[in-house]
Design goal:
The chain has 206 residues and is an alpha/beta fold. It folds into two domains: 2-123 and 179-197, NAD(P)-binding Rossmann-like Domain (Rossmann fold, 3-Layer(aba) Sandwich), CATH 3.40.50.720; 128-169, no CATH class. It is 31% helix and 17% strand. The chain contains six helices and eight strands; from the N terminus they run βαββαβααβββαβα. It has a five-stranded parallel beta sheet with strand order 3-2-1-4-5, sandwiched between helices. The protein starts with a strand and ends in a 12-residue tail after the last helix. The protein binds nicotinamide-adenine-dinucleotide.
């Protein structure tokens, strides 16, 4: 199978590239080598077996070229980080939402190949996630707290009813979304934009 990994020189993408190559797939990477993430040209950590197309996911032509002959896309390219998203609002919205839309449209134009799409979401879409109250094991969601609240009660969330410390738990995918910052909102929107198109599922092995 030939797989396109957008953002494939990044932290998660590059490990995924290694795994895909090890499993015998052909891998192409589309990445703009964002200078906030990469100091120079092709990073040494990118596996030599991966083809690198330097380009922006928002660039329709570059995206179209990268999608040629591809059976599956893992869309990992993104503007990443909660703090930066609070002042680089336009950039985060543009890369994460328009970028995803550009990749999606490119794939929809190739529907005859039945390409698959995997989009990397983020736990930030679930706010603080799920916690367990130690005293009685009750599971509860904690709302995102203000800086003032964190200073008052400490970094780890406490139970709003009893004030006791809470233990973090894995947050189930079907939990209600609770995105409270620009990064989280763009990640949540990415998911909601792609899911109705039904491009997930198992791609045929080649
Ligand atoms: N690292 C985490 O803890 C974490 C957790 C949850 C979700 N994610 C998601 O996983 C994905 C990858 O995250 P990461 O931690 O590897 O981030 P990263 O910053 O290391 O990698 C992102 C890659 O995307 C590239 N990129 C950025 N803007 C681009 C654009 N406009 N066009 C093309 N390439 C672009 C960057 O150059 C970089 O190589 C993101 O979607 C992120 O939201 C990451």
């Amino acid at each position: 199978m030939r797989v396109l990994v957008t953002g494939g020189t990044g932290f998660i993408g590059s490990f995924l590239v290694d795994r895909l190559l090890a499993d015998g797939h052909g891998v192409c990477v589309l990445d703009n080598l964002d200078p906030r993430v990469h100091p120079g040209s092709r990073p040494e950590h990118l596996a030599p077996g991966a083809e690198l197309l330097v380009g922006d996911v928002r660039d329709r032509e570059r995206c179209t070229a990268a999608l040629d002959g591809v059976d599956a896309v893992v869309h990992a390219a993104a503007a990443v980080g909660v703090a930066q998203s609070l002042y680089r609002v336009e950039h985060f919205v543009d890369v994460n939402i328009r970028g995803t839309a550009t990749v999606l449209e490119g794939l929809l134009a190739r529907r005859d190949r039945r390409p698959k799409l995997v989009v990397l979401s983020s736990m930030t879409g679930y706010g603080e996630g799920l916690y367990r109250r130690r005293s009685d094991g009750r599971l509860l969601r904690v709302d995102v707290r203000s800086e003032v609240e964190i200073r008052r009660s400490g970094w780890e969330p406490v139970c709003p009813e009893t004030g006791e410390p809470l233990a973090p738990m894995p947050t189930p995918e079907e939990s209600a979304l609770l995105a409270r910052n620009v990064y989280a909102l763009t990640k949540r929107y990415q998911e909601e934009v792609v899911l109705p198109h039904g491009l997930g599922g198992n791609a045929p092995a080649r």
